[in-house]
UniProtKB/TrEMBL annotation:
GO MF annotations, alphabetized: guanyl-nucleotide exchange factor activity; small GTPase binding
Protein name: 3532_t:CDS:1
Gene Ontology cellular component list: nucleus
GO biological process, any: protein import into nucleus
Domain of life (superkingdom): Eukaryota
One Pfam family per UniProt: Mog1
Taxon lineage: Eukaryota, Fungi, Fungi incertae sedis, Mucoromycota, Glomeromycotina
Keywords, ordered alphabetically: Protein transport, Transport
Keyword field contains Transmembrane: no
Stated family: Belongs to the MOG1 family.
Species in which this protein is naturally found: Ambispora gerdemannii
Gene3D superfamilies according to UniProt: Mog1/PsbP, alpha/beta/alpha sandwich (3.40.1000.10)
Amino acid sequence: MNDQPPPTLQQLFGGAIVAHIPPQFTDVRFLTHFFFYLYRTQNDDIREIPDNQEVFVDTHTDQSIVVEILELVNEASNEEAASYHFSSVAFDNDAEDTTIVQQTGILTPAEVPKLPSNTLMYFATGQQMVSKFNERDSSARNLVNIFLAVFRLPQHQTDLVITYNLPILIGETSSSRSYAQEGNVHVGYEEFKRILASVQIVDWSLFG
């Protein structure tokens, strides 16, 4: 018997995509000031979310979910795409030296049933040590577990990337320690699977 609640579907990109977003996550546009992990910028400035991103955060745990429409990465093969985007996230977070890719693989239509069965779908999981704001002390770095999926849409020259960022160990001097709870990898993984199982492209004209 499945005792999980039904997915909470969220309209993304004006309703062109729908996906399950856990109810405790808030659209970052509704937050007046919150810096989250793996925000694709090479500095610590707060800026507007670009049109190619949808970002949701749980302010009680510092977890974040990022959905991005990116240009197809031609220099990476299909099998390398998830690792490529995982490394790109590490670069954006100055975490290149503290990154571990634990697993990569192919997603199946059974795992992502609402996308066309011929969609090229890949995943990567791993961990990164990430600091927030300008916290450069090594003891301020937080260990973040990352679940990443990439859906390759070569007919639209697009990589659709979903990233679930789950801090599992908060540094002793991190600003997050005053309010955030460390996450559970198993619980996060189950939520990530529910996101993948629900993601659906409603309006393909989103990709031009």
